[in-house]
Amino acid sequence: MKVLIVDDNRDITGLLSKFLKAKGFDNVVTNDPRDGLERIKEQKFDIVLLDISMPEFSGIDIIQTLETENILKDQKIVIFSATAFTTSQINDLLKKEGIQGCLKKPIQLNELLTAITS
After folding, report:
1. CA 4 and chain centroid, separation
2. pLDDT of residue 14
3. Rounded to 5 degrees, what angle do the CA atoms 34, 12, 52 make?
4. 2-117: which CATH architecture?
5. Are 8 and 58 in contact (CB under 8 A)?
6. Would you give the DSSP letter of residue 26?
7. CA neighbours within 13 Å on the CB side: how many for 110?
8. Confidence check: pLDDT of 40 > 80
C-alpha cells in the first residue's frame, strides 16, 4: 500500500512516516501543500493523509482543487487537523466522494491504522 502524507509540520510527517514504514506501508512525505496537490494529480496513492490546517494553501484548498478538476472522487483521503472541527464541518467534508475519514491531532496511531485499512 502506498501512502502520501501531506502536512506542513515536519515532526508530524517524520513520526507518521516512521510509524507507517514500521507497519509495512510505503509512504511519501511532503511538507509543501502545493507539492502534495501535484503529487496527488500525478501519481496514484492508495491513501492520502492530508492536514487541513496549513498556512497559505490548506488541505481545504487541495480538496477544492481536486473537486473542481473532478478527481477528488478517485481519491481515498483521510483528513486531520489540530483545529477543532464542528460536527457540521466534519459531516460536510465526509459527504464528499473521495474523503475517507477524519482524525483529530494528536493522532492516535491505532485510529490511523484503522482509517488506512478500512
Report:
1. 7
2. 96
3. 45
4. 3-Layer(aba) Sandwich (3.40)
5. no
6. E
7. 0
8. yes
Q: What is the rounded distance in angstroms from the CA atom of residue 88 to the CA atom of residue 102?
A: 13
Strand partners, 98: none
- Compute the half-sphere exposure of residue 74: CA atoms within 13 Å on the CB side of its CA: 11
Grid coordinates given for 23: 507497519
Q: Averaged over 28-56, what is the pLDDT?
A: 96
- pLDDT higher than 90, residue 91: no
Q: How many CB atoms lie within 10 A of CB 3?
A: 21
Task: Compute the average pLDDT of residues 31-45.
Answer: 97
The C-alpha cell of 25 is what? 506501508
* pLDDT of 105 over the 90 cut: no
Q: What is the DSSP letter of 55?
A: S
Residue ranges of domains in the chain: 2-117
E-assigned strand segments in 7-81? 26-30, 47-51, 77-81
Question: 56: phi > 0 → left, psi -120 to 50 → alpha, else beta; which?
Answer: left
